[in-house]
Write a structure and sequence with these properties.
With 169 residues, the protein is an alpha/beta fold. The protein contains six helices and seven strands.
């Protein structure tokens, strides 16, 4: 059984005139949420071995705000396709990963939400209900996947262990 952490970036500022969307930064609320997400992950021993992170500024800032809770330290790859990619792009990244250690994606909506819904076969009832309503900024879905290797990843192979949103921490 494999573990996947799927994190949507924390709350970001709106795009400023003349600036690219990819350069948007976290706002004060997003920055304030990060210590709570990190503390929760540490308290539950949710530690990815490898993190695939979008190359957008807001995803990089999100990861920087929580990675100190990962012991041992996770390997990190910044992946441009996570910025504008669809569920197929996210799935391909996971499928191509070698090894069986827990993985994390730090990405964007609507793709995080679509991937989570695609993977969820069953899980915690409250978490499934919350996930079906919305995947807010800073939302973290934790899946146990009923597969022995990442290359076997397919839709509906995941048990949703938890879905955490920052305002509830």
């Amino acid at each position: 059984m494999l573990r996947l952490y799927l994190l949507r970036h924390a709350k970001s500022s709106w795009a400023e005139p003349g600036k690219r969307d990819i350069d948007r930064k976290l706002n004060a609320r997003g920055e304030a949420d990060l210590p709570n997400i990190a503390a929760l992950m540490k308290s539950r021993n949710w530690v990815p071995a490898h993190v695939y992170c979008s190359d957008a500024v807001r995803t990089r800032q999100t990861l920087a705000g929580i990675e100190g809770s990962f012991l041992p330290r996770a390997a990190i790859s910044y992946e441009p396709e996570l910025y504008s990619g669809d569920t197929e792009s996210y799935m391909r990244l996971l499928i191509d990963h070698r090894g069986t250690a827990p993985l994390m994606i730090v990405g964007h909506n609507p793709t995080c939400e679509a991937l989570a819904m695609q993977l969820a076969k069953d899980g915690d009832g409250g978490a499934l209900k919350t996930l079906a309503m919305k995947y807010p900024t800073g939302g973290l879905a934790v899946f146990d996947l009923d597969i022995p290797t990442w290359s076997e990843l397919k839709p509906h192979c995941g048990h949703l262990v938890d879905f955490v949103i920052p305002r509830e921490l």
